[in-house]
Design brief:
This protein has 358 residues and is α/β, with parallel strands linked by helices. The protein is 28% helix and 25% strand. It is built from twelve helices and 18 strands. An eight-stranded parallel beta sheet has the order 9-8-7-6-5-2-1-10. The protein has a six-stranded antiparallel beta sheet with strand order 11-12-13-18-15-16. Helix 9 (216-228) packs parallel to helix 11 (253-259). The longest helix is centred in the N-terminal third of the chain and has 13 residues, at 15-27. The mean pLDDT is 98. The structure holds alpha-D-galactopyranose.
Length: 358
């Protein structure tokens, strides 16, 4: 869990923004809710030293250097991440790390970096299976624990091989701040659910909550499902200027508990029905939690309100078993249910409950 610059700021990043973001992550309570990585995305680097090939941060945007920034972030009790690319250049054209894995990993370790997002542009058409392990090895050789977040966009089915290389792997193209993009990415990521677990996670890309392209109830759906599917929860909005709605969504502790549940099982789509041939579907998404509990999301993708039903047989609870349901958005006990939990769900939104044995 943490924050990344890309979805809101793109290349428009500099050290004051990062310091201010770290300050607000702490003062607003986001850190207490669990968000502890502050990650730079593309555009912090400009060149390499001519003699030793060390990566040079943009002196205009980061005049104090990356180490000073990492120190500041650490002084707030937070962790610090950077970005590079397994190619000649990053996607925004800055210098990439292909062939410079060792020297770059050493710079990151020297600066106190805790997280590396490693992108896939300008890759010379070499397989990521060849290009990502050298950075894994270089990071490991530094002796500093650095989370290795692979970003090859799901091109070569990374769920099948990346668990041996990285700590997380993107399964999809980039998310956009639109309902359709969210749906598309949710669907693409779902097929890899069985491959995720503690130590290696599918990454369906960062949160768009708070960026303005979707309605509040659509962001509620986006956050609920990202929590259920054990996505890395990386905030992608401007936390220095967030609305109460955005803050309320991002700090829903019951959903964060789903996301961080020790069982580490990725929730998945377990049922889908269509009200009519023209309608968008209603779906049930669910996954097991520790102590015999189940996270259940009634997801109405249609543009009309609808009753959505989660049957025990679909979510893996034996028929006849009595389960208590707690609404994790209303923060309210709903009573005891048997064989099915059903609720009225607003268009483009969710009802989310935790079921526990009664
Ligand atoms: C790619 C990645 C994005 C972002 C940009 C930066 O598109 O998939 O997440 O890092 O590059 O240029």
């Amino acid at each position: 869990m943490g924050f990344n610059t890309w979805n809101h700021f793109g290349c428009n990043i500099q050290e004051d923004l990062i310091r201010k973001t770290a300050d607000v992550i702490v003062s607003s309570g986001l850190k207490d809710a669990g968000y502890n990585y502050i990650n730079l995305d593309d555009c912090w680097q400009v060149a390499r030293t001519p003699d030793t090939n060390e990566i040079i941060p943009d002196p205009k945007a980061f005049p104090s250097g990356i180490k000073a920034l990492a120190d500041y972030v650490h002084s707030k009790g937070l962790k610090f991440g950077v970005y590079s690319d397994a190619g000649t250049n990053t996607c925004a054209g800055r210098p990439g790390s292909l062939g410079f894995e060792t020297i770059d990993a050493q710079s990151y370790a020297k600066w106190g970096v805790d997280y590396l997002k490693y992108d896939n542009c300008f890759n010379k058409f070499i397989s990521p299976k060849t290009r990502y392990p050298p950075m894994r090895d270089a990071l490991n050789k530094t002796g500093r624990p650095i989370l290795f977040s692979m970003c090859e966009w799901g091109r070569e089915d990374p769920a099948k091989w990346a668990p041996a290389v990285g700590n997380s792997w993107r399964t999809t193209p980039d998310i956009r701040d639109e309902w359709g993009s969210f749906l598309n990415i949710l669907e693409l990521n779902d097929r890899w659910a069985a491959y995720a677990g503690p130590g290696g996670w599918n990454d369906p890309d960062m949160l768009e909550v708070g960026n303005g392209g979707m309605k509040t109830h659509e962001y509620v759906a986006h956050f609920t499902l990202w929590a259920l599917i054990k996505s890395p929860l990386l905030i992608g909005c401007d936390v220095t200027n967030m609305s109460t709605d955005t803050y309320t969504i991002l700090t829903n502790r019951e959903l964060i508990a789903w996301n961080q549940d020790p069982l580490g099982v990725q929730g998945r789509k377990v049922a889908r029905v269509f009200a009519s041939p023209q309608a968008e579907p209603q779906e049930v998404w669910a996954g097991p939690l520790v102590n015999g509990a189940h996270a259940v999301v009634l997801f109405n993708r249609d543009t009309k309100n609808a009753t959505v039903k989660a049957f025990w047989k679909d979510i893996g609870v034996p028929n006849g078993k009595k389960m208590k349901a707690r609404d994790v958005w209303l923060h309210k006990e709903l009573g005891v249910f048997q064989d099915v939990f059903a609720a009225q769900v607003a268009a483009h939104s969710v009802v989310a409950v935790t079921l526990t044995p009664a």
